[in-house]
Specification:
The strands form two sheets. Strands 1-2-3 form a three-stranded antiparallel sheet. A three-stranded antiparallel sheet has the order 4-5-6. It has 16 helices and six strands. Helices cover 53% and strands 11% of the residues. It folds into three domains: 89 residues, no CATH class; 85 residues; 169 residues, hpI Integrase, Chain A (Orthogonal Bundle). The mean pLDDT is 85. The chain is mainly α. β5 and β6 form a beta hairpin.
Length: 381
């Protein structure tokens, strides 16, 4: 183990005097050939400081900080933590932290939440946390010590995210970033949460979906020479007719379809949340099921989303088509054809209507106008 050497020197420089003739009292810590300057909470005349017999309160202050630095170094050595000038500074500012780096934090935290995959978390959600790790490495460096992270670093992270993404996406990143540092706080690796005072603004996310015109363009596509894309189109039309997430679509089974009155209802539990959903299959979806005799042409999620982009290009549609967008398209179709929002939430497997209305479906201006028009006609009777 490397031997730790340190010394402390105090300065009160004429070059830093203010108009009143006073200068800040500085403590210089020389630690393993590193120099660290710390301003002490007092100012005095450099002439007074140079006297052999200094004021009692100044002598007490110098002794207090000399003892404090010695105690910090002793504590760091006992904890087996590498002793650096920067870590001592943060120890003095925050009351003490272990010298854990961002990389060490990410490795441990991701290792813990990875165990939830397949239970309370999907692989897709876990991969988002890996993206957050990569972003932290990019902005702050994997070797940055937690004791050196301050509130300004979180502000910087948030500012960069807001430059790159929409409010809802940047907020999603920040919420996940916060979980990393909450974990550090829970393990006493940080004494002051760098998120203090930071308000995450989720904004009002824009709800995107495929319009009726977009769906018609997709239906009319001539894919005779593209058997691969024809199967993907059928899968697209089915997903937009039942609203399941891709991970639930993979496990689709006709045995879970029940006829209720004049409609067919597909019921299952969402893999992501374990919440039960009961989705009414729209007519287009039933026709797709008949075509494939109940066995959907499932492919990997990666290939599916890649082929959806090809269909988007061929159909001349501006909206980026993803499997998740098709789930939103289903919700939009139901809501804007008069289905109650609570019913839409049940079809999607949401526990309440807030998330349904906020991020999945909102009434169009045309729907609102038609509904109000019906009410006006009632008053005219």
């Amino acid at each position: 183990m490397q031997r730790t050497t340190f010394s402390i020197t105090y300065y009160c420089r004429d070059s830093k005097k203010n108009k009143q003739g006073q200068a800040p009292l500085e403590m210089c810590i020389n630690i393993n050939q590193e120099r660290l300057f710390v301003n002490l909470p007092t100012k005095l005349s450099p002439k007074v400081f140079r006297k052999r017999r200094k004021p009692v309160e100044i002598e007490e202050l110098l002794t207090q900080y000399r003892v404090k630095v010695s105690e910090i170094i002793t504590q760091l050595m006992n904890e087996g933590v590498p002793i650096t000038a920067n870590c001592i500074r943060e120890y003095m500012r925050t009351g003490g932290t272990k010298s854990i780096t961002i990389e060490m934090l990410c490795v441990e935290y991701l290792g813990i939440i990875k165990k939830r995959v397949g239970k309370t978390m999907t692989l897709q959600v876990y991969k988002k946390y890996e993206l957050v790790r990569d972003f932290l490495f990019e902005v702050l460096s994997p070797n940055k010590e937690l004791c050196a992270i301050v509130n300004a670093d979180m502000v910087k992270i948030y500012d960069i995210l807001k430059e790159r993404f929409m409010p809802s996406t940047s907020a999603g990143y920040m919420v996940k970033v916060k979980t990393f540092f909450n974990y550090a706080m829970d393990n006493n690796w940080m004494k002051i949460n760098p998120f203090n005072g930071i308000k995450i603004d989720k904004g009002i996310p824009e709800v995107k979906y495929l319009s009726a015109d977009d769906m018609e363009k997709i239906k009319r596509l001539d894919l005779t020479d593209y058997e691969r894309l024809e199967r993907v189109r059928d899968l697209l039309l089915f997903q937009a007719s039942v609203g399941t997430a891709y991970c639930d679509l993979v496990n689709f089974s006709v045995e879970k379809i029940v006829k209720v009155g004049d409609v067919y209802v597909y019921s299952d539990k969402r893999q992501k949340t374990g919440i039960k959903f009961s989705a009414v299959i729209l007519p287009m979806g039933l026709r797709i099921l008949d075509k494939y005799q109940g066995k959907l042409p499932i492919i990997s999620n990666q290939k599916y989303n890649s082929y959806l982009k090809e269909i988007q290009r061929l159909a001349g549609i501006d909206t980026v088509i993803t499997s998740h967008l098709l789930r939103k398209t289903y919700a939009h179709t139901l809501l804007n054809n008069g289905v109650n929002i609570s019913v839409v939430a049940k079809c999607l497997g949401h526990t309440n209507t807030i998330i349904t209305q906020k991020t999945y479906a909102r009434p169009t201006d045309l729907f609102v106008a038609n509904e109000v028009s019906k009410m006006i006609k009632l008053f005219e009777l």
